[in-house]
Specification:
Layout lengths: L1 H12 L3 H31 L24 H15 L5 H27 L10 H22 L8 E4 L3 E4 L3 H20 L5 H20 L18 H18 L8 H18 L3 H7 L1 H24 L11 H7 L4 H25 L1
Antiparallel strand pairs: 1-2
Helix pairs in contact: 2-3, 2-8, 3-4, 3-8, 3-9, 4-5, 4-9, 5-6, 6-9, 6-11, 7-8, 7-9, 7-13, 9-10, 10-13
Length: about 350
């Protein structure tokens, strides 16, 4: 009887966006729980010494030496498999989101692999900054071109959506804007991934905002601030899978972490997040929701720029923070890792709440 029901009604059953979301979420979470421990054991055997601990972190992090990395590989699998099973195959938006996940994940994998093989605590033993930024630029150009092709004919091409229904044509600068959104998101998540469980916890409230934006974009009149984007319906399964995979990863990554996400995971999730925001024409809303990650990224940028400028002027480099990124500053102040993660999580919820308010009433 069950088989007959699935054969006769399966297509209609999974035509609902929320059904696709729930099914993909459940399968992704299940994949993480079932394969998480075997994957960790395999990474232990393959990596032997685990992830090398950076020289730019507090001394307390040295005890994490030997913890395997590249947990993002399993996250990507847990997103891709349910997405392919439940998303509408003829809808391009889901494919573009998965492409961003794969491309940025590939950059992160190479970076992780080089570091693990060299077993060096120096970040320079991964991809050089210029190489990584260049590869990210290539990915963004491809993604921006594809994203622009999904925009309905009643919305100008190469444009930015602003509150109150304002459309700002960007022309060729659309690709520059896309770089700041997608590559910026990738690097923000990458630098946020510094404490056990932190990126996963800060990422989930942003996902909730994107899901609400998706619902608004596929329901006429639900939100005046969100454009009607019928092709966006292809993102329900993909976002559901992402939510389930990240939540499942947190099961093993919460303090004390059994495995680290690595650049393969953080870059993949960041590129994915920025790409989905662009597909939904909700880039500004996403930036507000990800405000905690933005602050963490800015803290590292400010620290680097101020140090270089002060060294050039005075001959001695000076610092704004005790240590950057921001979470390491609070570690130096004596905050425990758990307290930092939980308080940053609270702030992330507040930023996402603000984004939801603006999404509904801006």
């Amino acid at each position: 009887m069950l088989t007959s029901f699935l054969l006769n009604n399966g297509a209609n059953f999974f035509a609902s966006g929320w059904t696709q979301f729930a099914a993909a979420f459940g399968l992704a979470f299940l994949i993480m729980l079932l394969f998480g421990r075997p994957f960790i054991n395999a990474m232990h055997k393959l990596q032997k010494k685990g992830q090398p601990i950076s020289e730019n972190v507090p001394q307390a992090h040295l005890k994490k030496a030997g913890t395997p990395t590249m947990g993002g590989l399993l996250i990507c699998v847990a997103i891709i498999v349910p997405s392919l099973l439940f998303m509408p195959i003829d809808n391009p938006t889901g494919w573009i989101a998965l492409l961003s996940l794969i491309m940025f994940g590939a950059i992160g994998f190479v970076d992780d692999y080089k570091k693990v093989v060299s077993q060096s605590h120096k970040a320079s033993n991964g991809l050089s900054p210029m190489t990584r930024l260049g590869l990210e630029a290539v990915c963004v150009v491809i993604l921006a071109y594809l994203i622009n092709k999904t925009i309905p004919p009643y919305i100008p091409e190469l444009s930015l959506s602003l509150p109150f229904g304002i459309i700002l044509p960007l022309g060729i600068f659309y690709y520059v804007f896309a770089y700041f959104v997608i590559a910026g998101s990738a690097n923000a998540t990458n630098i946020t991934d510094g404490l056990d469980g932190m990126l996963a916890k800060l990422y989930m409230p942003v996902l909730i905002v994107l899901v609400v934006a998706l619902y608004g974009a596929t329901r006429i009149g639900f939100m005046d601030t969100v454009m009607f984007l019928p092709t966006a319906s292809g993102l329900y399964a993909v976002l559901g899978a992402a939510f389930g995979a990240v939540l499942g990863f947190l099961w093993f990554n919460s303090k004390p972490a059994s495995i680290f996400m690595g650049d393969v995971g953080s870059l993949a999730l960041g590129g994915f997040m920025g790409t989905v925001a662009m597909l939904l024409k909700s880039e500004i809303i996403m930036a507000i929701a990800a405000g905690m990650m933005v602050l963490i990224l800015l803290s590292s940028f400010v620290q680097t720029m101020y140090f270089k400028a002060s060294r050039k002027i005075t001959g001695t480099g000076r610092r704004v923070f005790l240590r950057a990124p921001l979470h390491h500053h609070f570690e130096e102040l004596g905050w425990t890792e758990t307290k930092i993660v939980e308080r940053f999580f609270i702030v992330s919820i507040l930023f996402s709440g603000l984004a939801l308010v603006l999404l509904k009433f801006a």
